[in-house]
Structure to design on (428 residues):
């Protein structure tokens, strides 16, 4: 009977620990409900609570199973148990249902290139496992020094190997002139149709500001324009005629499609080649639940919380984009940047990562900073430069080591105008 009580208590401790952790980490999601006028902070807080409760169940199961299968006076076995269960449920939380790998344990190492380096060797989940081993090793300092060293050693080993034996670095392009445009348009203004041309003119003016020499690539943020670039209306004509001496421009926009009398819309990234007048595009594959589509729509159809009557459609396949037949681009829209599986079959043969996003939904919170940290991890995983452009920030150039080359802070309007030597690094 006592054992059952202990197991039950372990479950509750794990649950309430998880609930506190996830609420303090993901509170910023509620802000989007206020900005979108979708039930305000009340409904936003309720959504966060539901999400965090769901995630906390995995923390509770972790604690419960560790307690359930632990063996009295067998420190080694119990420590291995802790590492295994925490690592397994870390992975499950990031991959279950539609996937949400926002809070892996390894994200704590995103602050500098030294601690980021192991991502290029063992990835997100391998690094989490090694981190749990480190935590156990630190705990054992008070109990068993010799055993502690064994558990700390994997972390020291992978940190040393990844920093002192880096992958081979290859030059892709020299004097690659880029301009990243951060307009800092308020979210309420962004979706106001009466301000479409005003917002467009702001983007155009920032793009053309003090611009005399040729630019290889200009990048605008996610859903920078609300019209279909393939439509030949006045706005599209303005877009195509506004850029001289700019070879290519990447724009986030809406793509529309009609198949068998069914209308579909996509959150897309367009690459416009101003030399050949061709347009390539990538449709977002990983959509945001309740933001871009409603899960279980048939079940929830009678509730007023639904946004509109049409979900965004998910892209059918991943599309790499060619830039001047020289640079192959990996396009990532918004939080696609946190999903390594998206490009697991690509054989890592791209040269540059473009990540466009719109973090204006989350105001001046921790959300945009967490998103940036995860983007830095992605650059190290891929071993590529990333050009990251956000509507309100944080826009930045990140190198293959995860170092920020230049950035525009949150809530600022401006451009990053830079000539780069593009490199890529082989990663395990």
């Amino acid at each position: 009977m006592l054992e059952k009580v202990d197991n039950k208590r372990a479950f509750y401790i794990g649950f309430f620990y998880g609930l506190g952790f996830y609420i303090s980490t993901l509170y910023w999601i509620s802000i989007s409900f206020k900005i979108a006028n979708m039930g305000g902070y009340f409904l936003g807080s309720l959504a966060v609570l539901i999400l965090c409760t769901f995630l906390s169940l995995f923390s509770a199961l972790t604690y419960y199973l560790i307690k359930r299968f632990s063996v009295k006076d067998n420190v080694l076995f119990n420590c291995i148990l802790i590492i295994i269960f925490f690592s397994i449920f870390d992975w499950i939380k990031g991959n279950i249902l539609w996937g949400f790998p926002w809070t892996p344990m390894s994200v704590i190492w995103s602050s500098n290139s030294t601690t980021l380096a192991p991502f290029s060797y063992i990835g997100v989940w391998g690094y989490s496992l090694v981190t749990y081993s480190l935590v156990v090793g630190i705990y054992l300092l008070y109990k068993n020094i010799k055993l502690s060293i064994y558990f700390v050693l994997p972390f020291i080993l992978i940190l040393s190997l990844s920093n002192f034996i880096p992958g081979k670095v290859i030059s892709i392009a020299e004097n690659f002139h880029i301009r990243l445009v951060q307009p800092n348009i308020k979210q309420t203004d962004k979706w106001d149709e009466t301000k479409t041309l005003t917002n467009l003119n702001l983007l155009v003016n920032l793009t053309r500001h003090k611009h005399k020499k040729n630019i290889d690539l200009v990048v605008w943020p996610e859903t920078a324009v609300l019209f279909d670039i393939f439509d030949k209306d006045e706005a599209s004509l303005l877009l195509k005629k506004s850029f001289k001496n700019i070879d290519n421009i990447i724009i986030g926009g809406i793509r529309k499609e009609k198949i068998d009398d069914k209308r579909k819309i996509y959150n897309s990234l367009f690459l416009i080649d101003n030399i050949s007048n061709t347009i390539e595009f990538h449709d977002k594959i990983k959509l945001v639940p309740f933001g871009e589509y409603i899960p279980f729509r048939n079940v929830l159809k009678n509730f007023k919380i639904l946004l509109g009557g049409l979900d965004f459609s998910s892209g059918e396949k991943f599309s790499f984009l060619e830039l001047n037949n020289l640079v192959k681009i990996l396009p990532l829209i918004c939080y696609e940047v946190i999903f390594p599986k998206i490009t697991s079959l690509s054989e890592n043969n791209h040269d540059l990562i473009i990540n466009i996003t719109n973090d204006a939904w989350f105001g001046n919170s921790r959300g945009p900073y967490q998103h940036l940290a995860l983007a830095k991890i992605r650059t190290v995983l891929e071993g590529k430069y990333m050009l990251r452009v956000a509507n309100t920030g944080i826009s930045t150039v990140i190198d293959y080591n995860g170092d920020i080359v230049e950035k525009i802070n949150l809530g600022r309007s401006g451009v990053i105008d830079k000539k780069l030597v593009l490199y890529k690094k082989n990663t395990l």
